[in-house]
Amino acid sequence: MRTILNFILMVIPFVFETGCTENEVSEIVTARILKPTCGGTVMQIINGSLKGEEWKFFANLEGPFDSSSPAATYENAVLVGNVPLDRRVIGDTLQFSYIQGLTDGNYCEIGGLPKLTISVETLKN
User: Fold this and answer.
1) Angle at 104 between CA 115 and CA 123, to 5 degrees
2) DSSP state of 86
3) Which residue would you say has higher pLDDT here, 81 or 125?
4) Radius of gyration of the chain (CA)
5) Measuring CA to CA, which of 58, 76, 94, 107 is 20 to 30 A from 100?
């Protein structure tokens, strides 16, 4: 009985030290950059089990903002924090592991961005 108790006391700290954090996800996703903004980078998930939301991009370069006429609608969109500045090229694809939510940073609130937020944990390519 004492041996079992000693084993349990040795294993408990190991389990807590190696466990996942609340936001950690080990999955690698492939996503295409749709729109870099000061509020994060809007990306479309192309491959992975993460499901985003429908996102409408409103752009009218020749007149006032018109929310009744989106320039484009994208499925499976997410707002991604901390994409490196040199990797924010519209249309490029990135593969990365992620954590849920935005990492600490200085994000502006511009509205109209996807509500589902993730942050890059590790870039694969």
Assistant:
1) 80
2) G
3) 81
4) 20
5) 58
CA 124 to chain centre: 14
Give the model confidence (pLDDT) of 43-94 as tens digits: 999 999 999 999 988 776 565 555 666 678 899 999 999 999 999 999 999 9
Strands (E) across 58-116 are located at 72-81, 93-100
Query: One-letter amino acid identity for 75?
Result: E
Structure token pair of residue 101: 């939510």
Model pTM above 0.70? yes
Nearest to 43 by CA among 98, 1, 107: 98
Tell me, rounded to whole angstroms, the distance of Cα 100 from its chain centroid. Answer: 6
SS (H, E, C) 14-74: HHHHHCCCCCEEEEEEEEEEEEEECCEEEEEEEECCCCCEEEEECCCCCCCCCCCCCCEEE
